[in-house]
Amino acid sequence: MKIAIIGTGNVGSALAKGFAKAGHKVITGSRDVSKSKNNELVKYSSNISQKTIKEAISEAGIVVFTTPPIPAVEVAGDFPELKEKIIIDTTNALFNPPAPYKTAFEGIKAKTGSSKVVKCFNTTGAENMENPRYGNLGIDMFMAGSDPESKNIVAGLAKDIGFEECYDFGGDDRVELLEQLAFSWINLAIFQKNGRNFAFKIIKR
Ligand SMILES: NC(=O)c1ccc[n+]([C@@H]2O[C@H](COP(=O)([O-])OP(=O)(O)OC[C@H]3O[C@@H](n4cnc5c(N)ncnc54)[C@H](OP(=O)(O)O)[C@@H]3O)[C@@H](O)[C@H]2O)c1
């Protein structure tokens, strides 16, 4: 699969490496393609190339937003071709909502008109996205959105990069719940000082 990743910070880099390792073609789209992090990613894998945001979006079937929420919504409004793509929103708008929208997910849907927007890769730290394995155990990922076909593809991507399972939280109305789950992780990691090397895992009997 050809995957565009918009933003090459903590989350963008972690996902780019994971997708590339799993054999997907990754095109990072950034506002300054000469930045050193992009060069590091290109050196990391021949499956990663760096392009402008416009080129990345037009070449890929899946577009992953890993910028802060406000630029995610701004960029989403600039490219009409996004209407036809599967879009993954990894952002958390807990401290900086992209008004008038509560979440980037809501803004991206409104600006692109795409029905294929999936919230995923927002509920744990970037370190866990780069390495979702704890010994023999894979941690879990969570997603939400209204298009089952897109969610199947996104769940497959989560498993490709090492997550054990990608649980479906439900439709668009569960996106804010996923952002609260992210806040629960942030609360434990940062405010309660547990550090970033832990993850949520569903156990069953
Ligand atoms: N960090 C985590 O562990 C984590 C976990 C889950 C979810 N999230 C969410 O994921 C998102 C990204 O977090 P992060 O930690 O990866 O952030 P980050 O390291 O600060 O990276 C943000 C990226 O967004 C790009 N960007 C910012 N403004 C832009 C604009 N106007 N146009 C194009 N690109 C722009 C930056 O590009 P430049 O390099 O050009 O500045 C950078 O590559 C946030 O919404 C965050 O809430 C983060």
Strand order of the largest sheet: 3-2-1-4-5-6-9-10
Radius of gyration from the CA trace? 16 Å
Total individual domains: 1
The distinct ligands, each listed once, are:
NADP nicotinamide-adenine-dinucleotide phosphate
The CATH homologous superfamily is called NAD(P)-binding Rossmann-like Domain
The unreliable regions are: none
Helix and strand content put the structural class at: alpha/beta
Give the helix tally: 8
Helix content: 40-55%
- Structural shape: globular
Distance between the termini: 35 Å
CATH fold annotation: Rossmann fold
3D architecture notes:
The chain has an 8-stranded mixed sheet, with helices on both faces. It contains 8 helices and 10 strands. Helix 4 (69-78) runs parallel beside helix 5 (104-112). The termini are far apart. The chain has a single domain, classed as NAD(P)-binding Rossmann-like Domain (Rossmann fold). The protein is 40% helix and 19% strand. The radius of gyration is 16 Å and the shape is globular. It has 205 residues and is an alpha/beta fold. The structure holds NADP nicotinamide-adenine-dinucleotide phosphate. Residues 7-12, 30-32, 35, 66-69, 71, 75, 90-92, 122, 125-126, 182 line the site of NADP nicotinamide-adenine-dinucleotide phosphate.
